[in-house]
Amino acid sequence: MRNPVHQLALMSEMSLLRRKIFHHASDPWEGDNITLQADLAQLQQNWSKISKVPCPLSFNPAHVEEVMRIKRGTAGRRRATYHML
Fold first, then answer.
1. Is the separation of the CB atoms in 34 and 67 below 8 Å?
2. Residue 66's CB: how many other CB atoms inside 10 A?
């Protein structure tokens, strides 16, 4: 049975971000916290879309930029590794 309202809620930008944060926070730590840091930085940037109270997260903009740069590089290496298999 399909529920279009439920599917729409699951596909919203904030719902996807919430699921990513939950997933990355609950993964066993294997030396990579960049994905979680990037998710939390994205949450901070979009906080006003989900809450009226001030965001409890605070990141230095230079740190966020570095995390995003590393994440983009990591994603590129993962794609290259996948294509080599």
1. yes
2. 13
